[in-house]
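User: As part of a screening pipeline, I want to sanity-check one entry by hand. Below is the sequence and the SMILES for magnesium ion. Please return the complex as structure tokens so I can compare it with the automated output.
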Amino acid sequence: MLKFKEITKIFKTDLTSQPFVALDNVSFEIPTGSMVGFLGANGAGKTTSIKIIMDFIRADQGALEFSSELGKNKNDILKKIGFLPERPYFYPNLTGHEFLHFLGGLSELKKSQIDQNILKWAPRFKIDHALNRQLKTYSKGMLQRIGFLSTIIHDPEFIILDEPLSGLDPIGRKELKDVIVDVHKSGKTVFFSSHIVSDIEEICDRVIFLQTGKMVYDGGVQSLLNTHEQKDYLVKVQGYGFTPSVKHQEYTRLAGNITTFKINQQDREVLLAEVLNKKVELIGLEFIKPSLEEIFYNIRSK
Ligand SMILES: Nc1ncnc2c1ncn2[C@@H]1O[C@H](COP(=O)(O)OP(=O)(O)OP(=O)(O)O)[C@@H](O)[C@H]1O
Ligand SMILES: [Mg+2]
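Assistant: Here is the complex for your manual check:
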């Protein structure tokens, strides 16, 4: 669907300050029909990359290559893209319905077709009840929903969402993730940025990882998680005087003489045998999932 090839973007803010390299020879691929997560901390270059894809700003070096099914020229291609910006603008006096018709109209869609698409998607976004209200009365989560719905109103092939889940409560996050999955299952290619590795782990098959303008990973989500080879366990025991012989980190000593240790995966069996021998009670054994920071650290130190 898209190849982002060896792209460099340098911002020159003013004459006195140094030029800033926001993207440094970044390459990645978004295959047709995939669901790709775009991970990176604040300032990593996600929005800059997306702006280059959308042709809002130009790269200093490198090239973009869209697959032929999207069209031959930039105009045709852009019509096949649905884009949700990081900070979308909502006309406050328009109702949800008017807003969707306004955006659908910009894509030269017939009124009847816009209505059909609203009927299809608005209940899924749980926003159908508010479509006759002005956008200024919408909550943040409702605006996020109508914003996302507006990106697919013209039935695009390629959907790009810049932080679609930010600022939502856990239920809102889950609901919007479910809709993203539905949209993807309806045959669309989806590319969305996030800071949260668990969101991406949950719904994406591929992930692109940027760190301060440099590409650190482009590939399967599972292989990214596997790069975190040090799989640790948290073991919680209750009882007196137990110290594991295996390498461990004592985490917390809680009330009721409960101790929590962090151990390596390969030491799990030995530790469990020792727990049984010492007759202390095993209260919990929990796999510690790698956090975004740990994955960052692991990839960086390779
Ligand atoms: N117009 C600009 N002029 C100068 N610097 C810019 C400009 N736009 C972006 N930058 C810089 O480029 C870097 C990347 O910014 P970008 O907005 O792409 O990050 P991001 O990954 O989207 O971060 P966030 O998660 O906070 O949205 C930042 O250091 C930012 O300050
Ligand atoms: Mg951004």
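Points to compare against the pipeline: The chain has two domains: 2-226, 232-300. The chain is about 30% helix and 30% strand.
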